[in-house]
């Protein structure tokens, strides 16, 4: 499965500032023993003006990677091996900022380079607004039969479903889920959150653990996948789960393609086991030309575009400025990653 994405651009887009980060919990200073020693920050593979400005705006110093470097900002989801080599050659680095909310592209690196006095942060929550917006768009488009209508060449009988008052299951409880709860509120839906713990998520009607996923699928009208991709969540939804869902239910995945068994999804759609799917991510990714999902009439596939470069760059710059402030001062890092858990 490929999870590679574009590199972050050099500058913010024309609409910088239109989004804000959405976090699923309070930000607190990291423990003293985890707090990095402040020092120069290297931006790799190439320092780009937008992110150099973010570091300096927070009072940080950007410099080439050297024996003095204490912080490292990595701006691509590719070349994880190069990042590993940089860390091997520079054991004095104590903080690494990764570019995306999901860190599955770095999963092996996180585990192999998990060591005392190395703090990892990601962009988790930073891109929640545009991604949640995309999930809502896919949901409404599927329910209103937009895939069918955009392919049509003549008038037809009016068909479609309304989202109002329906049952929605959201798999995941991070910033995307929090923002989705806000966006879904005007539709008076009943929302069940599925997460690792049973701790209630504010705004949800019900919160259950992942062990209860199968139980809540049977009543769902829409299932939105917004979970982290880890070894434990591979193919979280497969043949068994699709068989449990209603034939009128829709699946939306804006997280990672590997969370859904593509073969099982393809079969479920072809047989009418579920009503449709909206996919911003696939497995494999990119989805090959000629794959059966491309020709399914009740499927919308977007090319991992829920958060475009113009949307993510300014949000990452804000996250970087926040974390440089934490690096130099109070230790209140945002988006701290557990290297062993993988998120």
Highlighted features:
343 residues, alpha/beta, Rossmann fold, 11 helices
In short:
This protein has two domains: 32-126 and 309-328, NAD(P)-binding Rossmann-like Domain (Rossmann fold), CATH 3.40.50; 128-301, NAD(P)-binding Rossmann-like Domain (Rossmann fold), CATH 3.40.50. Helices cover 30% and strands 13% of the residues.
Topology of this structure?
Elements: E1 41-44, H1 49-57, E2 71-74, H2 80-89, E3 95-97, H3 107-112, E4 119-121, H4 128-143, H5 146-151, E5 167-171, H6 175-184, E6 190-195, E7 206-209, H7 213-217, E8 222-225, H8 239-244, E9 250-253, H9 262-271, E10 276-279, H10 292-295, E11 299-301, H11 309-328
Parallel strand pairs: 1-2, 2-3, 3-4, 5-6, 5-8, 6-7, 8-9, 9-10, 10-11
Helix pairs in contact: 1-11, 4-6
The poorly predicted ranges are: none
Q: Specify Rg, calculated over alpha carbons.
A: 21 Å
Largest sheet: 7 strands, parallel
Write down the domain tally: 2
CATH superfamily of the largest domain: NAD(P)-binding Rossmann-like Domain
CATH topology of the largest domain: Rossmann fold
Shape label: elongated
Q: Percentage of helical residues?
A: 25-40%
Total number of helical segments?
Answer: 11
Find the structural class using helix and strand composition.
Answer: alpha/beta
Q: What is the CATH class name of the largest domain?
A: Alpha Beta
* Chain oligomer state: single chain
């Amino acid at each position: 499965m490929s999870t590679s994405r574009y590199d972050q651009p050099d500058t913010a887009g024309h609409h910088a500032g239109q989004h804000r980060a959405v976090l699923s919990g309070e930000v607190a200073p990291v423990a003293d023993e985890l707090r990095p020693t402040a020092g120069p920050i290297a931006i790799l593979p190439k320092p780009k003006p937008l992110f150099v400005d973010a570091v300096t705006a927070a009072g940080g110093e950007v410099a080439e990677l050297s024996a003095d470097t204490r912080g490292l900002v990595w701006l691509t989801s590719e070349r994880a091996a190069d990042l590993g080599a940089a860390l091997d050659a520079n054991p004095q680095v104590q903080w690494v900022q990764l570019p995306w909310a999901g860190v599955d592209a770095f999963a092996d690196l996180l585990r192999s380079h998990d060591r005392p006095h190395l703090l990892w942060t990601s962009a988790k929550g930073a891109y929640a607004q545009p991604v949640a917006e995309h999930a809502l768009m896919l949901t409404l488009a599927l329910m209103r039969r937009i895939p069918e209508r955009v392919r049509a060449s003549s008038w037809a009988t009016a068909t479609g479903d309304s989202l109002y008052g329906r049952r929605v299951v959201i798999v995941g409880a991070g910033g995307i889920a929090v923002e989705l709860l806000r966006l879904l509120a005007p539709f008076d839906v009943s929302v069940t959150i599925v997460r690792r713990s049973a701790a209630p998520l504010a705004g949800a009607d019900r919160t259950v653990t992942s062990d209860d996923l199968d139980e809540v699928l049977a009543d769902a009208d829409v299932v939105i996948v917004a979970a982290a991709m880890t070894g434990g969540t591979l193919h979280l939804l497969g043949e068994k789960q699709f068989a449990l869902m209603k034939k009128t239910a829709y699946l939306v995945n804006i997280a990672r393609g590997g969370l859904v068994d593509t073969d099982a999804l393809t079969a479920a759609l072809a047989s009418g086991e579920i009503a449709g799917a909206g996919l911003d991510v696939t497995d494999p990714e990119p989805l090959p030309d000629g794959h059966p999902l491309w020709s399914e009439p009740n499927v919308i596939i977007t090319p991992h575009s829920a958060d475009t470069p113009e949307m993510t760059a300014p949000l990452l710059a804000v996250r970087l400025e926040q974390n440089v402030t934490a690096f130099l001062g109070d230790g209140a890092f945002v988006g701290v990653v557990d290297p062993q858990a993988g998120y």
